[in-house]
Amino acid sequence: MYFNWEGVMPAVTTKFTDDDTLDLDMFAVNIKAQIDAGVHGLVLGGTLGEASTLTDDEKRVLIETTVGLADGRLPVIINIAEQSTKDAIRAADNADKYGADGLMMLPPMRYKSTDYETVTYFETVAKSTDLPIMIYNNPVDYKIEVTLDMLDQLLKLDNIQAVKESTRNVSNVTRIKNKFKNRLKVLCGVDTLALESILMGADGWVAGLVCAFPRETVAIYELAKAGRIDEAIRIYRWFLPLLELDINPQLVQNIKLAEVATGIGTENVRAPRLPLQGPERERVLEIIEQGVKTRPDLPDYKSL
């Protein structure tokens, strides 16, 4: 049941054709770019993956395709974001059946569960599967916080092993490390706090803009872990205006526009999402164009 919850793990976007079917050709282009850049895992079906719009069969196809592309070189994680415990158990079973290596789990969707209900939900699903689990703690967007006391209860289960820390409070990295030491891996889930979180001891980064800029993202992580902080900061300062596109209600559209600019994606989203329009589109394009124009030279980060 061991799983190495460390490194850069892209929350990959789901690619769609003009006819609103899965675009597996462009999906493969992006996944290969992520692997070539040296990412450490791949997360499917998260917010960026437009999970709420995907059918069960589409999730199966995405898992099986990604497992084939990864070819054992790095783990494939699928997000579980369901409304009922029964559906979450079924999703975990399907993930295992289709070849996923791990799960990222959100609290129940739509219903604002109590602390007791939330812990029971996670426990029940975890007991139903042997797959390792990363709890996704994002009270800003999903209105339910998984507190330290709740995590303490959940860690009685061996396959709950990591937390995606998205409270937007970087001090939580230290709080978690102080309380749990190495019992719980911490992965930053907020692009604009990634380097800060890594420097405070986060084990990894579930990243968004990595979808368009995989090499720069992995370089920041590897340089920081190697103690080459000034070099990491230089790249991170260039990256920040782009990273801020991730903390926006239209993050999917923003990041898909960035993927177009770097040649590893398309702008197609699934309704009710629609491509950006008007002044906001121009604003985002200006940020992306400036970022592409000034992309920094990278050291040989893979050899660190």
TrEMBL record:
UniProt KW keywords: Lyase
Pfam families for the chain: DHDPS
InterPro entries: Aldolase_TIM, DapA-like
Domain of life (superkingdom): Bacteria
Presence of keyword Lyase: yes
Keyword Lyase listed: yes
UniProt signal peptide: none
Family: Belongs to the DapA family.
PANTHER family xrefs: DIHYDRODIPICOLINATE SYNTHASE (PTHR12128)
Full protein name: Dihydrodipicolinate synthase family protein
